[in-house]
Design brief:
The protein has seven helices and 16 strands. By secondary structure, the protein is α+β, with helices and mostly antiparallel strands.
Amino acid sequence: MSIQITPIKPAIGATITGVDLNHLSADDNQAIKEALLKHQVLFFKGQNLTSQSQVALARTFGNLHIHPVFPTVPDVKEVIVLDSHQTDLRDNELWHTDVTFSKTPPLGCVLRAVKIPPVGGDTLWASLTAAFEALDDETKDFLRGKTATHDIRLSFPAERFGQSAEDDEKLQKAIANNPPLSHPVVRTHPETGKEGLFVSEGFTSQIDGLDEQTSRELLDKLFAHSIKDEFVIRHQWSEGDVVIWDNRATQHKALFDYGDAHRIMHRATVLGDEPFYKERAI
């Protein structure tokens, strides 16, 4: 088989076929890495990926993150378990870029579908690169060089994630280890050099240096703008599907629209570097 890459939308997304993710050649790995930089989200249908192979695939992009809150696959601590019958997953209904409450948010993620509801449970991704490029020049210039505060508590409130004494202790430790910090509002991608928005409703609480009302109004404007249809792709899952996304250039949102049906996803997260903004050459 030869690898086939089929773009889905101009701004975001490609389907990849002709490859078995359990048995990747060096050429396959390189093609996937190049496709990820170009398309930002990659979709693989009908894979039978093991947890060990998921870790191996994710490690081709870098070292892996150990999440401070979510449970993990037994004996495979690099793979977190997103189980709708075990964990309140409604935080994923907020648009967010993963783990931006840390100094070095992830490079990206490898997500596989283990159990899917009969209907519902889709995931959406949005290109923050395309969203920034579509802003007017005045807004772009205003945002460049500014920073914003990211706070773990926006997506992990105590009333949902600290209901037992054990869970609350774990949550409070995570909060103490991840105090609010600032990242650039406009991030320069470390590999492509492209500019992209780096704010999301899931973790961004304040644009630094602006009064509360002005910050709130601007963030709400950016949040609404960044999820316009032309920047967004939606995936209807089947069991065995695998998706890889570039966390440096996208945000995503999982839909909690399947009631009490059971949904299980396994995710491996690749460590990233500290976000920065590099002023463009004139």
